Give the backbone structure.
Amino acid sequence: MPYGNKTPMPDDHKTPPPQNQEYPGHTGDMAPEPRDEMRHYAGRDLLKDKVALITGGDSGIGRAVAVAFAKEGADVAIAYLSEDADAEHTRKLVEETGRRCLPLRGDLSTADHCQKVVDRVVAEFGGLNVLVNNVAYQAPVDSLGELSDEQWEYTFAVNIHSYFRVTKAALRHMGEGSAIVNTSSINGLRGNKTLIDYAATKGAINAFTYSMAQNLLDRKIRVNAVAPGPVWTPLIPATFPQEKVEKFGEQAPMKRAADPDEIAPSYVFFASERLSSYYTGEVLAPIGGETLPG
């Protein structure tokens, strides 16, 4: 399906129709396509001449963040697994703003590729100021007995080991005023009975965020996280059965999933020193009206 259906879900149908895709999923095959191009977003030079790396930057939240950062004046590198059409579309969106975009294909579950991605960004752009760890994998199970060692290890390799490895490589090039934004999830705050391994990694991301924020205070590098509720991205039809896709988002008090365009401004806030210079070690949870204790 071609790109172009960027209207939100209509008021009389707050959840998508049943559908499935092969993992990792493609935006153009979603019905409806998510709003993820930040078409109505106006930048204010909040990231002028910065260099940003976004893992999982080809689609979904990562795409919206890439375009928002570009509109704020940043050059952007997007690391992605294999979704070449999505990555190419994101590149075009970034370049339409007048900024540069570097797509980086490969598997971030491997240590070597995590290092190579950072090396390529620095070689191409001459530095690195903002890191968004956003790549993620999930696969629901009905019980712990159904959760294989292979799935557990792969989920951790993508969702938390890559955050550690990319961050470690990036920090060699990041100076005072730089920012790191990690993508967590509502599931890391309250768990999920069918996303056991995924929720565990998201909880680990929160703890990693808190720890690194403290660790990097002296270097004046801020570390924060965004923990969204349900968001309509290719990961959903690529990992959930059709009956769950059809109900996706209805559990939120707003009775719908977010579009990526609604989440990306949170990343701009944390990336911009002008907006969030006094914020580090925070987890911002855009979760559609749900309130959490604590």
About this structure: Residues 149-171 form the longest helix (23 residues). The beta strands are 51-55, 75-80, 101-105, 130-133, 179-183, 222-226, 283-284. The mean pLDDT is 91.
